[in-house]
Amino acid sequence: MRLDIVTIFPEYLEPLNVSLVGKARARGQLDVRVHDLRAWTHDRHNTVDDTPYGGGPGMVMKPDPWGEALDSVIASGEGDTRPTLVVPTPSGRPFTQALAVELSECPWLLFTPARYEGIDRRVIEEYGERLDIHEVSIGDYVLAGGEAAVLVITEAVARLLPGVLGNAESHRDDSFAPGRMADLVEGPVYTKPPEWRGRGIPDVLVSGHHGRIARWRRDEAIRRTALNRPDLMERCDPEVFDGRDRELLAELGWEVSEGGRYVREFGRPGRPVEE
């Protein structure tokens, strides 16, 4: 896979030289090219922003350098190959594991991390007519720039590429992995030593009984999802849960509503008493 990133802060992307992504680059599994947007400016100050039309606070990134930069990167492709454009923005589509899988199947991604109030909208409109484009948000908050989002997306995508993880099956049980049971998050994990600061590990994990271990892991995934991500639980189809699942959910204060989805009962565990 090839990744191109156009930014005014190339040094921000240095973490792409370490860990799994760095190793993937060293092995040739990932071709990462970072470009300085200011290389496509033509004034003595290398200006990339200007005041917004209509007034208001902040500055807007100018279309001219972005247009030249994107044209240059696109032209560097082989033959008729075109990149998929990824635009990090708080107003974009939420970044999920499913989207990471979708992007991991693209041979070439081109990122446009913005600063200030964002990129002149005409740039997105222009290249949206030429390329597949994803406007992506990594969360409901605002950062100083999109480079951090590029790091997040790149790591999530790169680990899905064949050969990047040491164990090819490692990502199949990830939280939010497509096709995973009921979109539950993963439960807790443990390793050696068997006792640490007076704290042991659940006996079932050293029982050697694979069925009981699998049941414990499923129970813990349900518990953690119900506690930390009730929004996911509320989206689950009750039909994916077996009898034991339903018993545990009832103990945790969840019931199936008239609308056919799980909701938490007031006054039950994990739910504050209604005032």
TrEMBL record:
The reaction(s) this protein catalyses: guanosine(37) in tRNA + S-adenosyl-L-methionine = N(1)-methylguanosine(37) in tRNA + S-adenosyl-L-homocysteine + H(+)
BP term (GO), one: methylation
Main location: cytoplasm
Enzyme Commission numbers on file: 2.1.1.228
EC class (word): transferase
Residue numbers binding S-adenosyl-L-methionine: 138-143
Sorted UniProt keywords: Cytoplasm, Methyltransferase, S-adenosyl-L-methionine, Transferase, tRNA processing
InterPro entries listed in its UniProt record: Alpha/beta_knot_MTases, tRNA_m1G_MeTrfase_C_sf, tRNA_m1G_MeTrfase_TrmD, tRNA_m1G_MTases_N, tRNA_MeTrfase_TRMD/TRM10
Record Pfam families: tRNA_m1G_MT
Keyword Zinc: no
Single GO MF annotation: tRNA (guanine(37)-N1)-methyltransferase activity
Domain named tRNA methyltransferase TRMD/TRM10-type: residues: 1-234
Cellular localization per UniProt: Cytoplasm
Family stated for the protein in its record: Belongs to the RNA methyltransferase TrmD family.
HAMAP family for this protein: TrmD
Functional summary from the UniProt entry: Specifically methylates guanosine-37 in various tRNAs.
Assembly mode: Homodimer.
Protein name: tRNA (guanine-N(1)-)-methyltransferase
Species annotation: Streptomyces meridianus
Taxonomy of the source species: Bacteria, Bacillati, Actinomycetota, Actinomycetes, Kitasatosporales
